[in-house]
Amino acid sequence: MPAGFLEAVASYLKPADAEAVAAAYAFSEKAHAGQLRKDGKPYITHPLAVGEILAGWHMDAQTLMAALLHDVVEDTGIAPAEIADRFGQPVANLVEGVTKLDKIQFESKAHAQAENFRKMLLAMAQDVRVILIKLADRLHNMRTLEAMRPEQRSRIAQETLDIYAPIANRLGLNNLYRELEDLAFMHLHPTRHRVLEKAVQAARGNRDETLNKIAGNIKAKLKEVGLQAEVYGREKHLYSIYRKMQEKNLTFSEVYDIYGFRVIVEQPSDCYLALGALHSLYKPIPGKFKDYIAIPKANGYQSLHTTLFGPFGAPIEVQIRTQDMHRVAEAGVASHWLYKADDSALSEMQRHTHQWLQSLLDIQADSRDSVEFLEHIKVDLFPDEVYVFTPKGKIMALPRGATVVDFAYNVHTDIGNRCIAARINGEFMPLSTPLRNGDRVEIVTSDSARPNPSWIHFAVTGKARAHIRSALKKTHQYESEGLGLQLLNQALRGLGVEPAEITEAQWERLTKESGRNRSDILAEIGLGKMLGVVVALQLLARDTEEAGERRLAAPMLIHGAEGVAVRLGKCCRPIPGDPIIGQIKKDQGLIIHTHDCQQVRHYREDPDKWVNVEWASDIDKTFEVGIKLIVANKRGVLATVAATIANEGSDIDNVEMGEQDGGAYTSLYFTVQVQNRVHLSRLMRSLRGLPEVVRIYRIKGREARHA
Asked: What DSSP state is assigned to residue 284?
């Protein structure tokens, strides 16, 4: 291992850890033997440079080992299992994480996609060290970008500007952020970069005198009020100057705040004392003060910012912060490794470092171990969102827990309404499948499909739920019309009139008198808002007293799958073979119950509240039914019962066990799927034959809630 890297590593790692890093270097050097970079140098120089950058942040041994090995799996054919065997699973996981990020292609060129891509990179890295390795990798690649072709340089530089520099900024790695921006600027606009660099160098001599004079005045004023402080003049980096010129349409000579000052004090309270002193020295510019101490930035950054009128009329930017705030501002999330001071100082840094990494707030003051730190930091950096790809490579942001249905409606309402299946990463998956970061989702649609009421139970986004409800409402309207027509026809036949005998003139008269169109009238019959027999009498222009004289019409046939306008009662769970009755319920349509259901016994006296119904003879579906078993309380009884149910061709939807009191018997509640009453009888007969079963019966009414 090169002497400089070995010395840097040995300066802060334990001897055993330094030896492990040396072993990783030797392994990587051997694996990359014979490989060259674009600039003609041995390939090992790249992972070594990445390791040196991370060693400068005092990263732990596992991170350094992963940095040295991060291209081994992709470029040399060595299996991840070998990495795990030689260097441990945590190192292999880091290498795998970096490899996974490398495989993501920034396919969409739209600027709006950049933020989603940044977030997805962060969210996919379960360990923040993966991101740090990736950033160090990108930094070295940018430093050696001259070896690439011009079009590749432009693409990589733009990607760095759009993706990786903002990530470094988000992580609080300010020095890295500034260098990435300047390198990207140099490769994207080499002429502008060269001209601006010369202009800054030319102005530097004249401005140094001003800078030193202002710095002296600030030091003197702070000493006057009794504050111990360090004062530094700082120069804005080139891309920051260029961006300000672009955004505000300024020439270089008009950018006065190229230089600023940083004041480092001892205590947070001293920051405000220093602010008052500076405001008495130079007049503050209104609206240019920001308190990032009371309200830190999203990445944990804290400082007081103020802009003052300088002695020569030029604005002066000043940042005021403590030493701990300065450490976090410069090193960001890496400051945990870079600055391991005593427990109290570490606790203070943890309190200020990245509020958006909520896990840091849970670390105890004496938590100086990197492993413990990482256990807390292993959370998605964007816990409320997932980022997935469309088939065309566009990235879509969805709330955490969003399912395929949410994705479909987010693409387009019609896609959501017509979706029937989905492929996630090439495999067919249920529409209720929750999506994960990086999933590639393809929706399969059908022109005849329509939303299912069950989607409401697993749709997460407001957009999806609203569109599902809207579509169901339209479907409900359509089905209610169909049911209303059936009920009206049944009422007409009960009055001795065939529906075909009703003329258009009769319908026109009724719609004119009622102020409703035919569709609305039929839907209201289906929803129970109007009685079919009353509408039939109005069509026939008869007195409503004739309603009591109507004879019972032929029953309506029920198939069990009519839709939202005709539903099976959950209270009694009727199945084919059960004597049934149809209850007209306002705003709900027709509810099918068994004859002995307690819910409808008081309706039997009012013929206007129920409909004569029967099961159709060609039903080809299964129905839910609840059964209760009293069984011997012994090992394996649940498995025996479940196997018997499966052998009889029934599926188990749900099973619950009664409270255990230590007695000889216990209760089992099953919800099973059967075709009809004959199928249920056969199933119960088989279960009754088991020696463990003491008693069995079908559940109805209140007890059905258990099944």
From this structure: B
